[in-house]
Amino acid sequence: MTEMQTKLLEMLKWLTEYLEGNGIRYYAVGGTLLGAIRHKGFIPWDDDVDIAIPRPDYDRLINIFGNRIGKYVLETPYQNNNDFLYTFSKLYDTSTTLIEKQKKNVKRGIYIDIFPLDGLGTDYEKAIKAFKKVDQKNMFLMTRTCAIRKQRKWYKNVAIILSRIIPFINNKKLSLKIDSLASAILYDDSTYIANLNGAYREREIVKKELFEMPTKYQFETINIYGPSHYDEYLTQIYHDWKSLPPIEKRGKQHDYLLIDLKKSYLDGE
Question: Is residue 54 part of a domain?
Answer without folding.
Answer: yes
